[in-house]
Every structure is written in structure tokens, then in C-alpha cells.
Amino acid sequence: MVDNKSLPIGVFDSGVGGLTVAKEIMRNLPNEKIVYFADSARIPYGSKSKDTVLGFARQITNFLRTKEVKAIVIACNTASAFAFEELEKELDIPVVGVVLPGARAAARQTRNKKVGVIGTIGTVNSKLYARFIQNEDSEIEVYGKACPLFVPLVEESMATDSVTLTMAKRYLQPLMEMNIDTLVLGCTHYPLLKETIQSVVGENVSLVNPAYETVLVLKKVLEEQGLLSESKEKPFHEFYVSDAPESFNEAAKLILDLEIDNTKKINIESY
Q1: Which CATH architecture has domain 4-97+212-270?
Q2: CATH 3.30.110.30 fits 100-209, yes or no
Q3: Taking phi first (over 0 means left), then psi (-120 to 50 degrees means alpha), and beta for anything else, what does residue 244 get?
Q4: Measuring CA to CA, which residue among 188, 168, 163 is closest to residue 76?
Q5: pLDDT of the residue at 69
Q6: Which residues are catalytic?
Q7: How confident is the model at residue 26 (pLDDT cuts 50, 70, 90)?
Q8: Residue 1 above 80 pLDDT?
Q9: Is 182 helix (H, G, I), strand (E, B) or coil?
Q10: Which helix (H) or strand (E) holds 131?
């Protein structure tokens, strides 16, 4: 009989941004094994329709189920916005998205009740962050701003490039004019731009990293369902992509500070 506690956690994103979530799992749940999938052939998700992203998410969860995962983390804000509610109904294992934990943290942190949310076009247009934040406190004003170039800049390892700083200033200026005191990094790629973003908005604006908040929720869910790993062995993590494993390995080394050479390319559309 399989011990469900020893099964891995499935984590997926459109690219390398979800590794910020994987990193938080490794840090906060060091006994857990991770099966990570990056849909690098079909990135970015942010400009695609809800039906398209939901279809992608279903294929990926079908693949992760073949790895006997005990829980799934949607480490992508766009996929969380478009697919979380459907996947939660369809799957018989816990599903954790990144939007709700980030929204709750933003509602807790704001002092002047003015919150900015940056993300992909899909995430911002879904207004899901605004809905969840205002569910916590209806008096909070939420201002969304799509930052579509941030994801490709991160994927091209240009997080500290002058071009990225220029785009950050352009994207964030309208939010600063709204006098926000809290900014949600509403895409899992964006924590990799944290220093640049903080330099633009200033130290008086709190940045909310949904990746960290998501792992706190994941830990609580696993505890409640008796699924926390009790293994004392160092976990072996698996990595899969839909394209370009070599590029993924390079990015993963920078984000996770790990040498990864076991990434496998799979045909995700067959799932």
C-alpha cells in the first residue's frame, strides 16, 4: 500500500517563474518531493484566453497525476485566475492556487487601503485579485496594471538589465500616482524582479510575494489532511518542460541555486 505522505507535490507554471514557489516549498517544507512542470513551449499564458489556459491546465494536471502527486500547486497567477476553481472541483486531491493567498496577505498588510496589483493581461483583466482582496475588506481600493513585458524579460535572464528598469518605471508610475502602500507581485516571475520593483516604488510600499503566502497555505492543507511528509531522506525533485530543457536548467540554477541536469522534455499535448 502506498504511503500518501511520501508522494510528491505537483507544481506547474508557464515557465520558470513558478520556481519561486518551488523554492519556497524547498525552504519551508524541506522533506517534500516536487514534480515541477514548465510549459515553456506555450509561454506566455497572460495574453491567452481563459478557455485556452484552462485546456493547458487540464493537460498538465493529467500529466502530474501520472506521477502520483498528492497535491497540486498552480504556481502561475494566470492559470490560478482562469483554472483554479474548475480544477478544484474536478480533482480528488488538494489544489492550491497563488491568487487567494496573495490577496489575503495584501488585505492584511495595507495601511491606507490602497493596493496595487501587477500581473499579466489575463490576471489583471480577470479582476480576481480585486474580488478576493475586497472579500477580505470591502473598503480597500484595488488598482491593477498589466506588465506584459516582465515575463519575457525574466525568461531572457534580463532581470537586472537597464531595459527592465525603464519598463518598471513606465508600468508602475500610474500605480504610484494612486498613492498605493501595498503592491502584489501578481505573477510568479515578478519576485525575480523584486529589487528593481522596490527601487521604483520606494521603501514605503510593501511588496506582497504570493509564492511565500501560497506555501504557508499548502503546508496548512497538507497538515489538515495528514499528508505532510515524514521522510528524513533528502528529497529527489523531478523537472519536466514542454520545450528547451537546457534553457530551463540555466534559469533553475540561478533561481534555486541548484545544479539541475535531469530535466525532461515531454509532449504535453498528448495528455
Answers
A1: 3-Layer(aba) Sandwich (3.40)
A2: no
A3: left
A4: 188
A5: 97
A6: 76, 187
A7: very high
A8: no
A9: strand
A10: helix 128-136
